[in-house]
Amino acid sequence: MAACGEAVRGFLFEYDTPRIVLIRSRKVGLINRAVQLGILAYVIGWVFLWEKGYQETDSVVSSVTTKVKGVTMTNTSTLGTRIWDVADYVIPPQEKNAVFIMTNMIVTPNQHQGHCAELPDDNTVCKDNSSCVPGYVSIHSNGIQTGACIPYNRSINTCEVFAWCPVEDDYPIPKPAFLQEAENFTILVKNNIWYSKFNFTKRNILPTFSSTYLKNCIYDAQTDPFCPIFRLGNIVKAAGQNFQEMAVEGGVMGLQINWDCNLDRAASHCVPKYSFRRLDNKDSANTISPGYNFRFAKYYKDSSGIETRTLTKTYGIRIDIIVFGKAGKFDVIPTMINIGSGLALFGAATVLCDIIVLYCMKKRYFYREKKYKYVEDYEVVSTNKGRMEKNSACLMAPKSTVLLLCHEPQALALEWPAALSFIN
């Protein structure tokens, strides 16, 4: 309790003020200057030159549109000879900041609603009707079981289902890809950006481009780094992937546009930088549900008026256009804030040197005595000094005056009669 009381009294009734002590020591002096030099290099080199701490910044606001071009031809037993253009392989025609290009497909033509045999698997292969449950449907079913067991082919019987018949058989996936020539398709990416804080706008079709150049250029990191037209095969290759392998089961690519602009310079220096990477994880150790695919159907009625559809399971490459960036421009407020923060950091050198001097050096006790000086309250010192002088006077005074000199006023008042008798 006494220690706690002393701590509380020290907290309430003591005040410390800085004291400047000049320590002549090569070691401490060099450490102090080295720390200050490091702080100065950090503030100038990193904060101001690299991070441009003298600028106010803003994040980019962006819009993206795409246009794909390319024509190819296929010849298969299911579809015959057919020409494929943009309206066939770009699904849907427009997406937000993305585009999907079909590269492979499985077509199930002329489906109509009726009764047919389900695809064979562990739950649908049967020997008689007792193996089939009327109304049963699972997540992977193509329809609803009727309870009948019918031939799927000459060797296997499966449960009958009410579904779009014939049911889709999506195995195996065609190899090579159905649209191998999609590698040569091109994508025009039009990107407009806006930095609202600085009211700065620009687009990736630069003012220096002519219509002739735009019709003939293809992006190349070395020869045409600002051309906004990209060959699909080059995008995949730049990400370190093989297009023909990726085209079989599909995948997701990222086309990244970086707009980092220093608006203290001319607007012509604010230009886009393109980069590419594959976004879906292609892991040879994890081959479950790879790539990118979906289904769609086209409906019509046949000559007899029965509703019919062509079901297509589509594999392809989805390209997500990711726009990011930051613009900076000189402003007094962040400049002053960073200068103030840098000056405050110089106090770290003093703190570090104090720790070394007071706790690590051999003469730490000597330095501690020089750094700290303890001063008592003036009023307390004066009172104590007066009492010491009074006590000395009492010892030296004659007996007749001891009572008057050495008794407190209250005691003297109480013993006044005795005092008078003593004097008499």
TrEMBL record:
Keywords: ATP-binding, Cell membrane, Disulfide bond, Glycoprotein, Ion channel, Ion transport, Ligand-gated ion channel, Lysosome, Membrane, Nucleotide-binding, Receptor, Transmembrane, Transmembrane helix, Transport. It comes from the Eukaryota. It is found in: Cell membrane; Lysosome membrane; Membrane. ATP binds at K67, V68, K69, T186, N293, F294, R295, K313. The chain crosses the membrane at residues 30-50, 339-361. One of its GO terms (molecular function) is extracellularly ATP-gated monoatomic cation channel activity. Its main location: membrane. Pfam families: P2X_receptor. Disulfide bonds join C116-C165, C126-C149, C132-C159, C217-C227, C261-C270. GO terms for cellular component: lysosomal membrane; perinuclear region of cytoplasm; plasma membrane; postsynapse. It is a multi-pass membrane protein. One of its GO terms (biological process) is membrane depolarization. Glycans are attached at N184. It catalyses: Na(+)(in) = Na(+)(out); K(+)(in) = K(+)(out); Ca(2+)(in) = Ca(2+)(out). InterPro entries: P2X4_purnocptor, P2X_extracellular_dom_sf, P2X_purnocptor, P2X_receptor, P2X_RECEPTOR_CS. Functional P2XRs are organized as homomeric and heteromeric trimers. Belongs to the P2X receptor family. PANTHER family: P2X PURINOCEPTOR, P2X PURINOCEPTOR 4. Receptor for ATP that acts as a ligand-gated ion channel. This is P2X purinoceptor. It comes from Coturnix japonica.
